[in-house]
Amino acid sequence: MDEMSFKNKAFLHGGDYNPDQWLDHPDVIDQDFKAFANAKLNAVTLGVFAWDRLEPAEGEYHFEWLDEMFDRAAAQKMNVILATPSGARPRWLAANYPEVLRVGEDGQRNQFGERHNHCYTSPIYREKVRQMNQKLAERYGHRKNLILWHISNEYSGACYCDLCQAAFRKWLQAKYQTLEALNHAYWGAFWSHEYTDWAQIEAPSPRGDQNVTGLNLDWRRFVTDQTIDFFDAEVAPLRAVNPDIPVTTNFMGGNPPESDVFDALDYQKFAQHVDVVSWDSYPNWGNDYESTEQLAMKTSLMNDTMRSFKHQNYLIMENTPSKVNWHQFNHAKRPGMHSMASLQEIAHGADSVMYFQLHQSRGASEMFHGAVISNRGGTQTRTFRDVAQLGTQLNQLKGVVNTHRKVAKVAIVFDYDNMWALADARTYANASKDYWKTIQDHYRYFWEHDIPVELVGVNDDLTPYQLVIDPMHFLMRPEFAAKLKAYVQNGGHLVGTYISGVVDGDFLAYQGAGMPDLITTYGLKVTETDTLYPSQRNSLRIFNQKYAVRDYCDLVQLTTAKALGTYGEDFYADTPAVTCNQLGRGQADYVACRTDADFLQKFYHQLVQRLQLQAELPIQKKTTKVAIQVRENDTTHVYFVINYSHEPTLVTVATPLTNALTGQTEQGTQAIAGYGVKVYRN
Amino acid sequence: MDEMSFKNKAFLHGGDYNPDQWLDHPDVIDQDFKAFANAKLNAVTLGVFAWDRLEPAEGEYHFEWLDEMFDRAAAQKMNVILATPSGARPRWLAANYPEVLRVGEDGQRNQFGERHNHCYTSPIYREKVRQMNQKLAERYGHRKNLILWHISNEYSGACYCDLCQAAFRKWLQAKYQTLEALNHAYWGAFWSHEYTDWAQIEAPSPRGDQNVTGLNLDWRRFVTDQTIDFFDAEVAPLRAVNPDIPVTTNFMGGNPPESDVFDALDYQKFAQHVDVVSWDSYPNWGNDYESTEQLAMKTSLMNDTMRSFKHQNYLIMENTPSKVNWHQFNHAKRPGMHSMASLQEIAHGADSVMYFQLHQSRGASEMFHGAVISNRGGTQTRTFRDVAQLGTQLNQLKGVVNTHRKVAKVAIVFDYDNMWALADARTYANASKDYWKTIQDHYRYFWEHDIPVELVGVNDDLTPYQLVIDPMHFLMRPEFAAKLKAYVQNGGHLVGTYISGVVDGDFLAYQGAGMPDLITTYGLKVTETDTLYPSQRNSLRIFNQKYAVRDYCDLVQLTTAKALGTYGEDFYADTPAVTCNQLGRGQADYVACRTDADFLQKFYHQLVQRLQLQAELPIQKKTTKVAIQVRENDTTHVYFVINYSHEPTLVTVATPLTNALTGQTEQGTQAIAGYGVKVYRN
Amino acid sequence: MDEMSFKNKAFLHGGDYNPDQWLDHPDVIDQDFKAFANAKLNAVTLGVFAWDRLEPAEGEYHFEWLDEMFDRAAAQKMNVILATPSGARPRWLAANYPEVLRVGEDGQRNQFGERHNHCYTSPIYREKVRQMNQKLAERYGHRKNLILWHISNEYSGACYCDLCQAAFRKWLQAKYQTLEALNHAYWGAFWSHEYTDWAQIEAPSPRGDQNVTGLNLDWRRFVTDQTIDFFDAEVAPLRAVNPDIPVTTNFMGGNPPESDVFDALDYQKFAQHVDVVSWDSYPNWGNDYESTEQLAMKTSLMNDTMRSFKHQNYLIMENTPSKVNWHQFNHAKRPGMHSMASLQEIAHGADSVMYFQLHQSRGASEMFHGAVISNRGGTQTRTFRDVAQLGTQLNQLKGVVNTHRKVAKVAIVFDYDNMWALADARTYANASKDYWKTIQDHYRYFWEHDIPVELVGVNDDLTPYQLVIDPMHFLMRPEFAAKLKAYVQNGGHLVGTYISGVVDGDFLAYQGAGMPDLITTYGLKVTETDTLYPSQRNSLRIFNQKYAVRDYCDLVQLTTAKALGTYGEDFYADTPAVTCNQLGRGQADYVACRTDADFLQKFYHQLVQRLQLQAELPIQKKTTKVAIQVRENDTTHVYFVINYSHEPTLVTVATPLTNALTGQTEQGTQAIAGYGVKVYRN
């Protein structure tokens, strides 16, 4: 699969459709398809959770209704994304094979209930899924309007049954080979924790061990691997029938209140198994604890993160046209917000706007989750009009398809192992570790100044970037330290921070001064890290100013680095707080403490000036509440100018550009409405 | 049973007495009975939790001590209320028949412990209770001083054992007849949740399903029905022996911090099975987060609620003369408060003031719960004096017995199904649904202005009322919408609010514009409901003023209604926020948003003027800290004038009235002490 | 064992050392021992948690490495404290004998995991521990550098397995002899809770009973007794081999956020079984919610508490040279703080400064707990230098060894039974009981004024003290009331407070006016206790001033006492709030309400004047941020002058004294650095 996910001639616009809820009301289905046309929908996701309609009793398959949906879709030129139904098993399956029910960390097996509640290891569940997927592949794998497989739904969670415990042991055996190696990694010689038999290994549990940090980390890795293994098993029969249909599964992330990355599965790893990344995006627009601009920044970061997993365009598989039903406060999108939010994601490289769901459920868990066709009002709603309007806009943007996000010169390092280990580190302060928030803090300047940023993992190539930012890299392998060193020596500019290079890949502490390559890179040794209580502050003296410092201060001893700024207070006053180190043709800066935003803004401002990373755009804005993203290909440049505020504002178009939503040429001062969007192209 | 609960010549004054604690100390019991006389007690409740003294080993009964208590009571003309002891089973019963122990929602069976901890379904428990009740009925059912059966104690809770699960399935089968009907109601076609066998049904559980809202609602209904079924089984042997002794069970409600109605059992339904409603009233007088006046308003509402279950006089079965031991802060009643609080309940239609308990326990769970005779001080206490003083007052009020609360022209609709469904609705914001608080908010104006209010259920007749207020009626059946329409058409005045008529009795969403009868009634369609974050505000422009709006805003489209007020802000500024609709001979107002109290005060003020609902009283007060309630019969009018403030105040008696507590005639300006009460009669 | 714990010629300086973590790296161990010498360490604790290195498979013992450690220690004249390894059992032991795994209060058996996780009752575990301890005693019991046995580690927790339940029943049978007696104590006649068979007894549990306060209290007592019984069983084989080696086990206490006493085990009782008290001290120096001075006061109280358990010198068995890894915020000790904190403990009677641990673990649970030799930096750290500096200081203080804390004339009563009962009392307000904080509040004046205080238990002799303070003595036995009376009659001065003498040793309420001896002692009867809500205040009028009163007010009726102060508000305004009673040759004051600190300061100030309890010191300070503690023996007086502030200050040395840390004679004004310490001797 190349950079463009589907070489579509249009962005996908549609969503989850579960006619299985109205099979006894064909009139509803008739009206729904008419409504799809009216809303300019061109894609429909079928089959999510539909297992009991497809196989109501073991071995008794009913595909007629699904056939009809394919036909109806085809009749109005809608693409179909077909889901495997494994996200919710039927009751008969649980009744016949209790082993498919997940076991909790307390060792108790669940009853039937909810979704995503099955054991990933169970051979029977895998076999039943294989049979179903095989049937689906055979029946629909060559349908012309099938464009994508949607595997299961929002994989997550873990099972602690005996089968999973055994699989975990096998996974550990493959990894460590010997108990000696495992005991060393888990530092079992302390607390009499050495295993003398593989059979003694149990997953972390509140009834057993929760403080063996190496074990905790391996369990998280195993859960990802076992989930991927299950995913791969789901995919096998599909690919066997038609290898040309790409596969995805819908990832999660960006949820309130932190708008942070999903942390239960290593998506960087998982993404290597899907053909295209897709995700479900549910920001809580209009909340009362942050500005729309702030939430937009965080949501842009989440989009950049999703794009970064494969460094290619991605899909929005779910979002809501109005509001969800599971936020703490289920606040309606204001007029304009749906278009604003949807085009934000397109601007970052999404090639779709898909909804959960097209027709709202009448009852049970999801009956209040916003949908294109509502219980209250049907299609005679503000929501439906918003969707139809977006449909029109997406049609007007057809020319933008086959572009990708402007290539970034700035990268931020993000790593799941590090996130997990840092969260589990029994030191610092759990209340203030804030790994993802730190990434947001470093991202902010670039977003506000319309400078594209790519997220990179530890296995990614750093050489394409002029600036690499590597915040709070607590668990860092020597290989990555070497990569950082090489990057700088070859002319890169690196910015690192406090709490980096503390433990290795086994979660064992580095000894002495730490990794030589890291010391060489930053030109300093960290002697200790001071953790501040919430109300305590130090200060940073730099740029002839004083900035507030909170939470964490690395105390450093310079080898080759120079101090750019020093601490203002306490027993380490006057020691280096921000440093720079010339190495080879590059430079590595070390921000040894956590500062408030104003320092980072100033710091990155001077760095951007120096490295000439400024966005060069034919459009000037007057406020950071407007963000401008660029999609492009060899011939086309498209500028998404989005106003993340309820107040209108002005932008200046320096050279004549085509307004892609109207076809008009515009130049000079242009007004943008509150929550308004302008899309210009050359 | 008629309007007066017992045709007593006096209010009942007494309480729970457990001499079973001092059977080895007859001197204590001697002194207790002397103290009862000194405190002017005329009723004693015996036998609560006394099972192991009545049947210390299986089949070995000991009634001698209870006989003696009946005799002692008779000797000093005290009535006896006799409890069935099922609220706390003896240890031998649990040891011999473990099935009587309740099973938790996690599936684990409890050990012996606490109270109210038995399975309501267990045939063995029912049989043991039947045997005991049969014995009690035979031995005491014709005792002259037996006036009432007190069935068990404060029924509540649920059991999840296999017997209960089976009973639940049977209950569902009787309700739905077919799995198709049940699957439709639970919207099982989504998430592959369709049942294919009745045996697959399990009660909601954290280990299973908690998001099938229809199932959750049915489980709550079943728990009520099964509890009532157990209650009916307890009553059967009693009635068989002497059908003339009325039965009750003590309800709960009004507890801190919200002073809200008890929500675990549908008391509206349960009340139809008792002969007289009784309840346990424990307001936290003197707390620091609301004024005494506010708490008095909420407590008046609770009394009106209890009265409304059968629309007849009721009993206070428990209260404390001093303080309880289970509030967060166990603060002593200030001087005067006990009389103030007791006469408040009499004023609302209570025919008793009963205490838990008459003699304080020396040890274990309840040893610090306030009692008439205390551990510390015995009868030489402020508390005992307060009780004796109230005894004197109640004697002076003998003439008030055989009156009932003044008939109300104003009704507020309250419904358990609606309360449960709204609480479980996966939308809006759990933090701000506040159903009972909303009822309190609407009740407040009338209470402050001494206008009687009746609570009505959905099965009640609305025609007696000039004004019906129906707040947040989220789950509403079509039959009730029709009833509202007929009520208005026939000249009634209806006030409804935001979030009404959203789901039907199965918890399924109404489609399209909603119930036609509701649209006709209010003359409008709700197009969407906006949920605000806690700090967000809209405003309401009405009466040439601007009022703050928070939490919820229905956006409406008028059909026949007219806007009385409009929103002041946001994208729905200038659209209707308060409306009125003329229909037939009546009018229906719709308050589409949640406002602060000042709007409701103004709104109801003009409505009361217009409908001429003002209280016409021969006593004028100067402050809303004084409330005046009226009890009456054909010939007598009794005015309870209560000062809910620690500050003295004045009232004006317009025409000469008898002070019922002194026998004096009073007229003109009269002083009322802090927490003071005046009772006047014509 | 006499007053001096070891007749050492030096304070012990060292800590936990687990070379078992580096047996495969002899170079590490070589370096470690060199570092010990550099840090002036003279003691090493070996074997804590080392079971699986000592017995890696059942019956297969490996002592060679431990032999070597003894030899290495001996070679550099280091003492050895040898731990029994029972705090963490090996995996094979749990695998072979699952009964050793603890069962939770929910009845579920734990998996292997964590530490301190074994059943104390299990005969098999006791036998395995006996075998191990026997081996250790035989091999090391006569080693010359063995100075102390360290039994297990931080005993705590409870097990609810069938063996423990049976032991609990046996314990109860021994205590009560008959079920009648037990039923009376548990007040089982109420709620049908009478036991009819000993087999019906179960430990308190959320699945069973949690409200039988007598049962709860007995369970806590049993847990202490069973723990001690296990401890005694551990000690038996050690003493059998060499009765001359003293034994200890490390107690806990003083942890954030309250710096309160450990409440899971009755250390007053446990201490009678150890030869010397030792404890693990981890104050969170430098936190942001209290001043260093406040935390120092609380930490001094904890040290006084530990000393009071045997009224003799004690050991610091663990502390951190830098920071721990389990505080909410793991904040580094500032320069000077390590010496300040260590000498504070020496000043109060500690004879050691021992660390957890000497060489930091590389992995797992404790890898970030501060240690003498760190992962980061090894010995090239601020921490190592702090330790070495303290080593030097301790060497300079050799002459101070063989002194004890100056004998106190002031005692505060503290009792575990009372603490447990008060915490479990179902009355007052759980949010404001604050028993330990109340002790801190009463201790504060004396600490600020350098007046030594001893904690005393209810079995202690009160006659040595001029002033006894007995705060919130809720559970008080008649014997202790008699002791208080005798104390006062014989000339003692007693101060008691609200909420005293409420229940007896069985947790049964005293009847009537309460214990005659207590009434005689204080000359008053308490008629009721008023519990205030958090924002409510009364006031106390005394000393011609008005002080704020909060939380609790006893209302009292004087018999022979006189009022010193009266309440200012509410219905008990003008009644006595602080009283004094002359009795025999002494006086008993009763502080009937909880006041803010300023009253207590004033109250104790006048009392200290009157009783002439002022500290008479040759050193004057200018601020309460400096505290002065005295250690002495017949010939020597040593003054520890410690500045608990980051700001330097001055003291005046009135007569020439030797600065024990420099050998210089000093007189007149002397500067003390921030967190600085001066030690003077005559």
Automatic annotation (TrEMBL), chains A, B, C:
Residues noted as binding substrate in the record, renumbered to the chain: 115, 153, 326
UniProt xrefs under InterPro entries: Beta_galactosidase_C (IPR013739), Beta_galactosidase_Trimer (IPR013738), Class_I_gatase-like (IPR029062), GH (IPR017853), Glyco_hydro_42 (IPR003476), Glyco_hydro_42_N (IPR013529), Glyco_hydro_b (IPR013780)
Domain Glycoside hydrolase family 42 N-terminal: 16-397
Binding site residues for Zn(2+): 119, 159, 161, 164
Enzyme Commission numbers on file: 3.2.1.23
Pfam families for this protein: Glyco_hydro_42, Glyco_hydro_42C, Glyco_hydro_42M
Reaction(s) catalysed by this chain's protein: Hydrolysis of terminal non-reducing beta-D-galactose residues in beta-D-galactosides
Entries under Gene3D superfamilies matching the protein: 3.40.50.880, Glycosidases (3.20.20.80), Golgi alpha-mannosidase II (2.60.40.1180)
Enzyme class label: hydrolase
GO terms, molecular function: beta-galactosidase activity; metal ion binding
Keyword Metal-binding applies: yes
Family annotation (CDD domains): A4_beta-galactosidase_middle_domain
Annotated catalytic residues: 154, 318
Keywords: Glycosidase, Hydrolase, Metal-binding, Zinc
Chain ranges passing through the membrane: none
Residues in Beta-galactosidase C-terminal domain copies: 626-682
Similarity annotation: Belongs to the glycosyl hydrolase 42 family.
PANTHER family cross-referenced by the UniProt entry: BETA-GALACTOSIDASE GANA
Name used for this protein in its record: Beta-galactosidase
Species, as recorded: Lactiplantibacillus xiangfangensis
